[in-house]
Design brief:
This protein has helices at 2-14, 19-31, 35-48, 59-72, 76-89, 94-106, 110-118, 127-140, 144-156, 160-168, 183-195, 202-206. By secondary structure, the chain is mostly helical. The longest helix is centred in the first third of the chain and has 14 residues, at 35-48. The chain has twelve helices and no strands. The protein is elongated. The N and C termini lie close together (8 Å).
């Protein structure tokens, strides 16, 4: 990623209004978990984005990845604002829908998050995080049988965090007074968004 950043910086020295280069450099910063730097570059990419020109990346991708970086910075309300703009540009994007649910969980709009996740369970490659986060939402509102059922589904789809949750809360210990450890959702979200390469994409193939 640092080689990509160096190469993209050289490109920007010669073409300082290249929206795609700013976007890709932002993706590279995000892949290094340097989200403040990523957000700066995403803002530049948005500033120089020109819908009349031929861009490699749609503006919705810039807004979405900016929202992801803001999520990691725990700036959830601002992330939701940028995600709303991403959804307007690409309304039928499963990753946007998942991020919408995750952000609603983080701002404690649990019922809304449950509704979002329940409408997107058909995204087969995203089911681990969908069921995991819906399970966290159910647990937060005291619907523990539904929470456990979702965690079991998420674990079957490969979610290590769901497996950890099931070990942390054996069936006979679960009560509505249990708390949700903070490390579960944060670590799962980071692994999910990195594994799905929302930050990198084109960057990985061009600058291995």
């Amino acid at each position: 990623y640092r080689e990509a950043i160096s190469a993209l910086t050289d490109i920007l020295m010669n073409d300082p209004q290249n929206s795609d280069a700013y976007y890709l450099r932002g993706c590279s910063w995000a892949s290094l978990v340097l989200h403040d730097n990523a957000i700066i570059d995403y803002n530049q990419a948005l500033h120089y984005f020109d819908s009349k020109k031929e861009n490699i990346y749609p503006i919705g991708s810039i807004y979405r990845n900016k929202a992801v970086s803001q999520m990691f910075n725990q700036d959830y309300e601002e992330a939701l604002k940028n995600l709303e703009l991403a959804l307007k540009d690409t309304p039928d994007d499963g990753y946007n829908d998942v991020l919408n649910g995750v952000l609603n969980y983080h701002v404690k709009r649990y019922e809304n998050a449950i509704k979002i996740f329940s409408e997107i369970t058909h995204y087969t490659d995203l089911q681990d995080i969908i069921y995991y986060y819906r399970g966290l939402c159910y647990f937060a509102i005291g619907e523990t049988p539904k929470a456990r059922a979702d965690m079991q589904c998420a674990a079957r789809f490969g979610s290590k965090d769901a497996s950890d949750w099931l070990q942390q809360y054996p069936y006979y210990l679960i009560s509505t007074e249990c708390y949700i450890p903070r490390y579960f959702p944060v670590f799962h979200a980071r692994r999910f968004f990195l594994q799905k390469k929302l930050f990198s994409g084109f960057c990985l193939s061009v600058f291995p």
